[in-house]
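Quick note —
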Amino acid sequence: MMTAPLLPPRLFTPRDRSDYLFALALVALPVDGTVIGFYQPFWTPISPWLLVAYCVLNPRLLWQSARSHAPLMALPIALFALSIPGWIVFGSHANAVLMSLSGVIAVPMSIVALYIAFDRKHLSWQESIRIIIATYWFAFAVGVAQWLAIRIGLTNIQSYFSHLMARSYVETGAHWAGAHARPQFLFAEPSYIGMHLFGVLLPLFWLMRPHDSVYAKRLKHLIVVFAAGSVLMGSGVRIVLDSLVALIIVIIVEFRWSDAAQRRKGTLLLGGMATAGAVCCVAVPRLQSIMTHGITGDSSFFGRIYQSLGPLGGIMEHPWTTLTGFGAGNIADAMHEGSATAARMLTLLGTDPRAATNWYASITPNTAWTMSAYTSFITEFGLIGFIAFLTVTLRFVTRGSAPPSSTATPVSVRHSPSTTANDRSDSRITAAPGTTPRPWTKLTICWLVLLAYLYLQFEGYAFAAIPLFVWSTANRRHCNPVVISKSRPQGNATTDIS
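Predicted structure written out below.
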């Protein structure tokens, strides 16, 4: 009996033409700092808007998915309602409102897009991961090219990237780079490297590892090379801190702390990470300056402090905004209202507030940013909005723990006749019989803690990290320990497991 030869894997197998838009959104994941993207506070992403368009082009599935994700879909409406008092008192700014609410809307739409692609259409996760790995390797190669251009002095290449990026760090003397040009890859700024590596790629590694060791290993290699390369090329201080925090989280996830031998190994590794952190504080000049001179030891670090103090000072001036916020798009108003209070706080901290007050005065509704998701969100929507977002988001962690049926529940994977054998190694993925997913596993808690840390210095509402977390926890019954068939179907016959 002759067996059909193994064919090379397809790059992407769509179910209909709209799926190419989903694939394009995967390609655009690391492209969030170019002049091509849609402007948001301090970044210009492309991927979220492609995911929104993907949902719109699948209206029937969008409607079905929206019904099962009703609390998430209603959240933007609630945030709009919370903004009305702030708009009445402080006014509204059309462009700023559009930037804010579009970012908020992109979150549930991105979750629904993942649901449509993988739960309804059953697109190949292997093909999707392959696309993501390839596009992030391309982004890393761009960073290497930028670094070589900076080191060798290839001014034409530096000038090209300076015109391509919305905020350029690759050309010495540029407004954002100052005297020290550095590679920024395709990101809005070098400090966002950790958001991509540990907000997107590391969780994908965790999700893929039970299902496909090959792709998990490729993701691990990508993360390690990207992080190490970023540090060696001097891309910034935050990637050093983010890498240390992520390694601590990984150690906690990987070891069984109930086992004495593993507990000893894990404790030794955590001690090693603490030592590495201390060494970094001495060896990295910017960190050493912060340790020596406090918050004024580094201008970027100092800026992140006063960028949040301004709007928080505005909340202190108008206590009622603690509940409902200043309204979507009104971060600049909060800064202007709180500039005097922020200046007093900076003076109490023993710093000169003039740089901060000059910055507050220069900010407009279209250029306001805080570099912290917590500051931005609470300033715009208040504690009510923030608690509502947490409640709705964490509800999906519990919802994903609903017990499966008494028998094994297969994950339906449908392959078109043109799907190759290489792409069908995942053709039978079945939940383990009798397995009841737990809502708060160690991995879930560590993943959430990592996200909470990353968003301290990132305010992009529409970034993929939160949608990926919510979608995966909502589908926990498909992400628990699985039994993967060892069989690899041959030929091009259609496989339908349902």
